[in-house]
Design brief:
5 domains, 3-stranded antiparallel sheet, 17% strand, Arc Repressor Mutant, subunit A, 612 residues, Leucine-rich repeat, LRR (right-handed beta-alpha superhelix), alpha/beta, 17-stranded parallel sheet
Length: 612
């Protein structure tokens, strides 16, 4: 409040708002951004309200456990803490009474007029499409970290996202919606990636409760999170989120109107899922991620209106030819399943935008074949709306036809052979919107000569897995907008750092078995904007030299499996911006030194993790 007390003017005006765009109209030097209270500050505020009649506002010993849980539930929100403390100030100071209060705390807070009025005002102010997007967030479980990429695809499938010309994809427009909800303080950012993009967010429990209540009242959606209660919904309800379901679910006549079915209960049996889906004929969105399914119910392929199908992280291993019936499908997620091949009928999905089909072969991450692709028909290249294609097995004919996919932004090709390279380079050069390219050789002995590779100049992410000719480093250096590079099993005999060191956009560098030499040198001025560096399984590496003035913005360093590295790099002390170091599967001598006397080199780093 120093600006007020030092102001010589006769009047003072304080403006409070939940919207950042409103605050931006005022002089920036007078902005005071409020954050959630710390655990200690939350506790102090709560005690002042709840124990206002007790000397020093001291919490009785018998209530400390429940009081701490109640404060934690408020998640640092001052209004919630004040209201909760005030309510409890009038209640008996008995453990059973406080336990009962805690068990219905979410209801108490979401129905408190003081809180409801404040939060409802923010919700009612939203434009219709943004309001739908916000209410949709309430379909995710309590305290869930919501992936921005996933929810953007869901919003698009639901029809919430408006097209804004040819310069922006619908996915980019949807990302803008997330930012708008953040600016309005309706969702909380959990994780921002190294590019500054929101990666994950969550909803405050209070907002989620109000969101669920509003959605139910407006027949937007229902959340089923109590298997002991009978699910009740209007025939006009369009969406259901099953978080704790019951095995004896009985689909009602109203369930035929559902447009969205999101399953978060991975204990629900196949038969229960199958019986429920038989009545959901008009579904647009179906997510069965992490469910117990081993085969896909044929009824799914009768959902002619389906826009979004997520079967990822299930034990499904085969997809029926009936897949071709889903003419409206935009997103098909089969990631981390056992599916090895997709039928020719895939080419009938003319509206498909995103295809995810990666398989994991080695969870230890120790072999060359950690991930595997899936065979897809060549005719997939006739799907002109495709933007994401990962991870698919390469064939010569498929590679030749890739140039038809002018909207493609992400391409992951597995089992690439040297004999495919001329066609691959020719096709990649014709994909103007490509921002992420990943190529993996057919095995660890195949040498790929990618010196002819000429991706679009706007390429941002590059993953190359397999032995590479030295000339690839010059190709990579020419891609000045690259922000993320991963080189794995490359077999370089000479230090590759000098070729990459002056790429001004580069923020992430990942080297896995990429270099067979004994010395890596980070010279002064190298990697000026690098934020994360992963060095893993460089088996011959004996020494790392780090000079002053190198990697001046590095935040995260990971050293993993460097079995020949015995000495801790002295130059670690120069990396003043480091926030996190991860030391994983390193030689015992190295770890002992780092945890001992040479720990002084990293004493400025707040987060140090050792994994053995």
């Amino acid at each position: 409040m120093q600006h007020i007390s030092q102001n010589d003017q006769g009047s003072r005006v304080i403006i409070t708002t939940r919207k950042e765009n409103v605050a931006s109209l005022a002089d920036a030097k007078y902005h005071i951004k409020l954050y959630a209270l710390s655990e200690e500050a939350s506790w102090d505020l709560f005690c002042k309200k709840a124990f206002c009649t007790i000397p020093e506002n001291r919490c009785p010993e018998s209530l400390i456990g429940w009081a701490k849980k109640i404060v934690e539930k408020c998640q640092g929100l001052p209004l919630a803490i004040v209201v909760t403390g005030s309510l409890l100030a009038c209640r008996d100071k008995k453990e059973q009474e406080w336990k009962w209060f805690y068990n219905q705390l979410s209801w108490e807070l979401s129905n408190n007029p003081q809180i409801k009025d404040v939060l409802n005002l923010s919700i009612k102010d939203l434009l219709p499409h943004l309001r739908s997007c916000f209410l949709y967030c309430g379909l995710f479980p309590e305290d869930a970290d919501i992936s921005s990429n996933r929810i953007c695809r869901l919003w698009i499938a639901e029809g919430f996202v408006e097209e804004k010309g040819k310069d922006l994809t619908m996915e980019e427009v949807a990302q803008g919606y997330i930012k708008e909800l953040v600016y309005r303080s309706l969702i909380q950012v959990v994780e921002i990636n190294i590019y500054g993009k929101i990666k994950k967010f969550r909803m405050h429990d209070l907002l989620r409760e109000i969101c669920i209540a509003t959605s139910k009242e407006e027949r937007f959606s229902v959340v089923w999170d109590n298997p002991h209660l009978t699910l009740r919904f209007s025939e006009e309800t369009r969406r259901i989120s099953v978080q704790k379901g019951s095995e004896d679910i009985q689909p009602s006549s109203g369930s035929s109107t559902f447009r969205t079915y999101l399953l978060f209960d991975n204990n629900m049996s196949y038969s229960c899922i199958h019986d429920a889906l038989k009545t959901f004929r008009l579904l647009r969105v179906l997510s069965l991620r992490s469910s117990k399914m081993k085969e896909v119910p044929e009824v799914i392929f009768e959902l002619f209106n389906l826009h979004y199908l997520d079967l990822s992280c299930t034990e499904v291993s085969e997809i029926s030819k009936s897949l071709g019936n889903l003419h409206s499908l935009q997103t098909l997620d089969l990631g981390f399943t056992g599916v090895k091949k997709l039928p020719d009928e895939l080419s009938k999905l003319k509206k498909l935008r995103h295809l995810y089909v990666v398989r994991v072969l080695d969870y230890t991450l120790e072999t060359f074949d950690v991930l595997a692709g899936v065979y897809v028909p060549i005719s997939i290249c006739n799907l002109k709306d495709l933007q994401n294609l990962r991870c698919i097995e390469a064939t010569r004919d498929l590679i030749v036809n890739l140039q038809k996919l002018k909207l493609l932004r992400v391409l992951h090709l597995w089992k690439v052979q040297q004999c495919f390279i001329p066609e691959l380079c020719a096709s990649v050069a014709t994909l103007p919107n490509l921002t992420y390219l990943a190529l993996s050789a057919i095995n660890d002995g195949e040498v790929l000569n990618l010196n002819c590779l000429k991706p679009p100049s706007d390429l941002e992410k590059l993953r190359l897995i397999g032995k590479l000719e030295k000339g690839i480093l010059e190709v990579i250096r020419s891609l000045q907008k690259l922000r993320d590079i991963a080189l794995c099993w490359s077999g370089f005999k000479e230090d590759p750092l000098g070729s990459l060191a002056h790429m001004s956009y580069l923020v992430s560098l990942y080297l896995v078995r990429a270099y067979d030499g004994e010395l890596l040198t980070f010279c002064q001025g190298y990697f000026p904007n690098l934020k994360q560096l992963f060095l893993r399984d460089l088996m011959q590496l004996v020494q790392i030299d780090i000079e002053s003035g190198t990697m001046i913005n590095l935040c995260h360093l990971q050293l993993s499996g460097l079995q020949s590295l015995q000495c801790v790099p002295e130059g670690l002390s120069f990396l003043s911006s480091l926030q996190r170091i991860t030391v994983q599967h390193m030689p015992e001598v190295f770890v002992e030194k780092l945890m001992g006397d040479e720990g002084r080199l990293i004493q400025h780093v707040p987060n140090i993790t050792y994994l053995f």
